[in-house]
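Lab meeting minutes (informal)
Scribe: AK
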Amino acid sequence: MPRQRFSVTINSIRIVYRNLMTGNSFSQPMNQISVEELAQRLSSGDASIQLVDVREPQELAIASIEGFVNLPLSEFAEWEDQVPNLFNPQAETLVLCHHGIRSAQMCQWLTAQGFTNVQNISGGIDAYSLSVDHSIPQY
């Protein structure tokens, strides 16, 4: 397993562990938004939505969607305390990753932090590239 993928896995485990130790559960229902709905929201120019991408910088260098704030899951310990200052917990928050797994973890964590309107982007940037914008490279 490459070192980068290993660090993402370790940090994902830390998030799960922290939630388990604090009594938070990943069994809560999660709101999803399709990549087609995301495209409509982005084209509407709605400035009230918060866009979070939890992929690694190397992944962003390959494929990205404009407007997303990058919070790499592997750097969770470095940014977790900044989230309340960066984002409004009551605003609609859409979370993206490669396929929807890491973003689902982030959605659960944000919800546990008191965010009230969080949605996972189903299928991630991979689905966005396949269904919405073919100019975005797949990896």
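Next up, CB showed the second protein from the same session:
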Amino acid sequence: MSISLIAVFIPILLMGGIVGRLFREFAVVLSVAVLVSLVVSLTTTPMMCARLLRPRDDHARGRFYAGPSAASRRRWAAIDARSAGRSTIAG
């Protein structure tokens, strides 16, 4: 998506005449902003997600959360066991 956005601004960057002069700075600034956004989205965002979304122990949260969490895991395990033999494609 980002590279295609930059590709859209290349013709604006290469325009001639007075209009080209007016839009040249606009095209350069937007292309650089998209490049910086691309670098951040491919490097910094996954790193922040890995740091913020670490799995936690039920014991670290306390007894209040341990019960519903264990019950939820049991319910999903039962649903998975029931649906294991069924086909998901209707036909």
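CB comment: Residues 17-52 form the longest helix (36 residues).
No objections, moving on.
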